[in-house]
Design a protein that fits this description.
There is one protein chain. Helices cover 70% and strands 0% of the residues. It has 252 residues and is an all-alpha fold. Helix 3 (53-64) runs antiparallel to helix 4 and helix 9 packs antiparallel against helix 10 (203-216). It is elongated, with a radius of gyration of 22 Å.
């Protein structure tokens, strides 16, 4: 899809610029530069998920500086600035995922200046730390209050995107906490993720959280068991087949 989007935008630009068809009016919801930059951003994200980090970095450069883009109006320039910011954050993300944690302090300083990027960036920082078994307690302490009290919610990301990242943050945080033997905190984070997943109807993440809780359930308090059971009962009421009802949490 990213390749197709980039091809379409390049075709339009070629028709406009090489054929000098300046009269060609596009009835698009957003400025053309958005679709151009998004094509490169999506491509880099796809490569990142395939662990092809060097290739992903190449496509990041495709949207890092779009100030050259023709016929930019005020809205277009705002979007260009956003892509520049995304590129900065994603360069850090790629480096961390590849195992280069020497940039973590620099990344944290970047996030202090750009608080709207804290939540999505912390998801990646946690994923990278879980992958490479790195300790990031100082960074978590630095930004945890910002995430928990919702200061990152007022952002340019839409609500559904924000909630999904908030959910993933708690799931990755639980993974991190369990891996460092902070089991009580890990259970709390798992329940946070499960709660959001139930509200979203995110079945895949619900199952992930159930598996996580089952693995550490012997360490849960009675109150945590009760919260978990309440959440699962809510899921089962929404499932005609009651396919999740077999996940009992009663102590063995």
């Amino acid at each position: 899809f990213a390749d197709e989007l980039r091809s379409l935008v390049h075709l339009i630009r070629r028709e406009r610029n090489l054929a000098k068809k300046k009269w060609l009016v596009l009835n698009t919801e957003r400025p053309l530069v958005v679709y151009y930059g998004q094509g490169y951003l999506m491509k880099s994200a796809a490569l990142e998920h395939q662990l092809r980090y060097e290739e992903a970095e190449e496509y990041i450069e495709g949207y890092a500086d779009l100030s050259w883009f023709e016929e930019l109006d005020e809205l277009g320039r705002i979007e260009v600035d956003k892509f520049k910011l995304f590129a900065q954050a994603n360069r850090y993300n790629i480096q961390l995922l590849a195992g280069n944690f020497s940039l973590l302090s620099e990344y944290a300083s970047f996030l202090e200046v750009h608080p709207k990027e804290i939540l999505p960036s912390m998801v990646i920082i946690l994923k990278a730390s879980n992958k490479h078994k790195m300790i990031i307690d100082d960074v978590l302490k630095q930004f945890m209050d910002n995430i928990v009290d919702g200061r990152t919610q007022k952002t340019y990301y839409n609500e559904a995107n924000y909630i999904s990242r908030y959910n993933e943050f708690y799931y990755q945080l639980a993974t991190y906490q369990f891996s460092h033997n902070h089991n009580m905190e890990g259970i709390e984070s798992t329940l946070q993720s499960l709660n959001i997943s139930v509200q979203q109807g995110n079945k895949s993440k619900i199952l992930d959280c159930i598996c996580m809780f089952q693995q550490y359930k012997k360490m849960a308090t009675p109150a945590q068991y009760t919260e978990y059971d309440t959440l699962i009962k809510g899921v089962n009421r929404d499932e005609e087949s009651h396919s999740l009802s077999g996940f009992s949490t009663l102590p063995e």
